[in-house]
Amino acid sequence: MDLFTSASTTDDGTPAASTGAPLAVRMRPASAEEVVGQEHLLAPGQPLRRLLDPVDASGTRRTSPASVVLWGPPGTGKTTIAYLVARASGRRFVELSAVTAGVKDVRQVVESARRDLVTSGRETVLFVDEVHRFTTTQQDALLPAVENRWVTLVAATTENPSFSVNAPLLSRSLLLTLKPLTEEHVRSVVERAVADPRGLGGSLALGEDAASVLVRLAGPDARKSLTILEAAAAAAEDAGDDTITAAHVESAIDVAAVVYDREGDQHYDVVSAFIKSMRGSDPDAALHYLARMIAAGEDPRFIARRVIIAASEEVGMADPTALTTAVAAAQAVQMIGMPEGRIPLAQAVVHVATAPKSNASYSGIDAALADVRSGTIGQVPLHLRDAHYSGAKDLGHGTEYRYPHDDPRGVLAQDYLPEELAGRSYYSPTTHGYEREITARLGAIRSILRDRR
Predict the structure, then answer these.
(1) Is the four-CA dihedral 298, 300, 301, 305 of positive or negative sign?
(2) Alpha helices for 5-135 (secondary structure H)
(3) Which strand (E) or helix (H) includes residue 187?
(4) How would CATH label the architecture of 183-262?
(5) What pLDDT, in 10s, does the model give residues 21-67?
(6) Whose C-alpha in 33, 174, 201, 349 is 20 to 30 A from the C-alpha of 207?
(7) Fold assignment, 377-449
(8) Domain 267-354: which topology?
(9) How many whole angstroms separate alpha carbon 138 and alpha carbon 131?
(10) What is the share, in percent, of the chain residues with pLDDT greater than 90?
(11) pLDDT tens figures, 216-228
(12) pLDDT (mean) for 323-346
């Protein structure tokens, strides 16, 4: 089952852009040399270059390439790289979108790839766009195919793979980080599209002012720049002009922006501003960006998840009820849907934005994880180990444990951290909101715990 974004394919199995395809699709780089801004991945000897050059200098075909996870902002070339990998290697290209594909689709693709490999020796490149939206079960369904190299997986994500991709899948893949494009990169993409036969073919000129405005509006996103260019070119043609001006770009940007929002790309900038507005305690700005996401048709569950994260990451124990409100809003959206769901979402956003702020819990778990990942772990103290099995007490497990409720204070002097971490403090509460009380109480608790009289 081949799931292509285009109706036709080239001889090597990669999607072929029709003349009626969007400009961004027609101008997708046909070779590594046309890819801009990712020189650090395309240098000789780099893993991506090896994927794109399946034959070494002696003419010997390399072994099957490892699967890769491409992490980078929208419009930096993740989809393009997947196409180029398939084209360069002559492998069959199959694309799945994590937004629409289910476990059944994944298993069908994997089985088809395995069958092709066994019967004809033909290998498959499986491109999974927005892999961070795959559930754990869907990602797990990919593991056998990646482990046995039935497919070469190229997975694309705009979110940190350490948090959005399963550890087993990530450990079996190369992680390649794409850099944001500069204005010079985006300008080169636009200028090529104006001249290239695949694009405007020189039928229109692009004024310098128009190019500057277009690049500024597109930001670091090559795909967005081509979407805007296509709309501006249509505006110029409708007006009977032979040059795209800044006025054409500005008149077309509303149309381009709507298309962009519906494709689900611009929301990353808006979500970033949304989160930073809540963090910065500005409920008016936070509601503005919430409204933009709702108007653009953003998935309300996606919004709710971001509010839940902010309630813990930005507010934390300074106001523990913010998380309760955020979770309740998410549940309400599930129950009542939209447009009424905007009301509990707004309530949660205002709560998070106006609440006192503390990232002490967030910082604490990251500090603890840093120690664990660096090997600073130590042994669980004997008095804390499980003593509920035969022979445990003979090993000293639990024999010196002191029951805190035996003390009227509810706290007893006792070591809980491994000896190697004695005295380590991960949680440092602020004096904001409820954490003011925690600071005072925790100071007293730590004094008792560390009292060795």
Answers:
(1) positive
(2) 23-26, 39-42, 47-52, 78-89, 103-119
(3) helix 183-195
(4) Orthogonal Bundle (1.10)
(5) 889 889 988 888 888 888 888 887 777 777 777 655 555 555 555 78
(6) 33
(7) post-AAA+ oligomerization domain-like (1.10.3710)
(8) Zinc Finger, Delta Prime; domain 3 (1.20.272)
(9) 9
(10) 22
(11) 888 788 888 999 9
(12) 91
